[in-house]
Amino acid sequence: MKSVKQGSLIVTFRCNAKCNMCNIWQHQTHPDEEIDPSFYEKLPDGLRINITGGEATIRKDIDRIFEILYPKAALLELSTNGYNTEKIVELANKYPNILIRVSVEGLPHINDTKRGLVNGFDHALRTMLELKKTKCKNIGFSVVISPDNYRDLLSLYELCVALDVELGNSAVHNSWYFHKHDNQIVSEDALRQHELFVKALLTSKRRRWKDRLKDYGRAYFNRSIHRRLRGDEAGYRPACGALSDFFFIDPWGNVSPCNGSAEEWIIGNIKEDTYENIINSDRAREVMEKVKSCKRNCAFIVTERHDMVRRPWVPIMWVIKNKWRTWRGKDICWD
């Protein structure tokens, strides 16, 4: 358990959006229930920490959360829908070395329809434009590929290239966290559109080599997403790193291995015990056995990232092979 490197802190289940692929907004927490920021002081130094929700910037004490975690974290991330522009820009100016990803679901029509958020894309874009004026440079959008937005995927990537910002992506999942059990994509057209997106990543036209290399890495990560979208049997992606590479803490302070399981596998509560006791407890070892036998085959970057660092030759060889295939006009080899 001592190799855990990333913690995702779900600071609230309150959300101002009504996404059709996530029902958190139907199960919102009350402010009085949510963990006091002081308990985050128990976390060890040097973690990569993601602040998420719900919509994290709804919390009135979000600045206190950042004040505690900014000096502790190796990298502090904020996942947001970008609606609260003023607060997000304030955080970026005060804590310039953070990573910010603004979630959108496509271009304006699709985004606002899927999120049930009036002028949601407008707010997200304005937030990104304002962030570009700050000293915070690790900024970008993120998108969840779903049955009704995959046609916007390539256009969204091209927008990010034009704005010179990042684009992270994932695919719809079902779990206790999303309160969903019917998310799925079964579409040959979705596979074709996704392949065009990955080819664009492999032939990245970004200005800086560092950014091109990031696109190549994302292309490799999308290998797992593509195989998930086409319904491949389990076994194509790295072993899950839940509880060995990362963990989650929910708004009540419950510590669990991941946000992809059908039910929340709680191993302890950070308000009641130390991080070290929780992560090395008998309960943690019991839950680790559940993680090892889990067949949900999630395709989350949090798992892939750690495996890519441990075995860099695997993504490098895959990228080289498929850049060559793309240059010759051939389809991507997803194996």
Structure characteristics:
335 residues, alpha/beta, 9-stranded mixed sheet, 9 strands, 38% helix
Structural account:
This protein is of the alpha/beta class and 335 residues long. Helix content is 38%, strand content 13%. It has 11 helices and 9 strands. It has helices at residues 62-69, 85-94, 108-115, 120-131, 153-163, 188-202, 209-229, 275-279, 282-293, 301-310, 313-327; strands at residues 6-10, 48-52, 75-80, 99-103, 138-145, 166-171, 246-249, 254-256, 268-269. A 9-stranded mixed sheet has the order 6-5-4-3-2-1-7-8-9, with helices on both faces. Helix 2 (85-94) links the parallel strand 3 (75-80) and strand 4 (99-103). Helix 6 packs antiparallel against helix 7. The two termini are 30 Å apart.
Question: Helix and strand layout, with pairings?
Answer:
Blueprint: E1 6-10, E2 48-52, H1 62-69, E3 75-80, H2 85-94, E4 99-103, H3 108-115, H4 120-131, E5 138-145, H5 153-163, E6 166-171, H6 188-202, H7 209-229, E7 246-249, E8 254-256, E9 268-269, H8 275-279, H9 282-293, H10 301-310, H11 313-327
Helix pairs in contact: 2-4, 6-7, 7-11
Structural class: alpha/beta
Parts with pLDDT < 50 across at least 5 consecutive residues: none
Helix content: 25-40%
Q: What is the string of SSEs from the N terminus onward?
A: EEHEHEHHEHEHHEEEHHHH
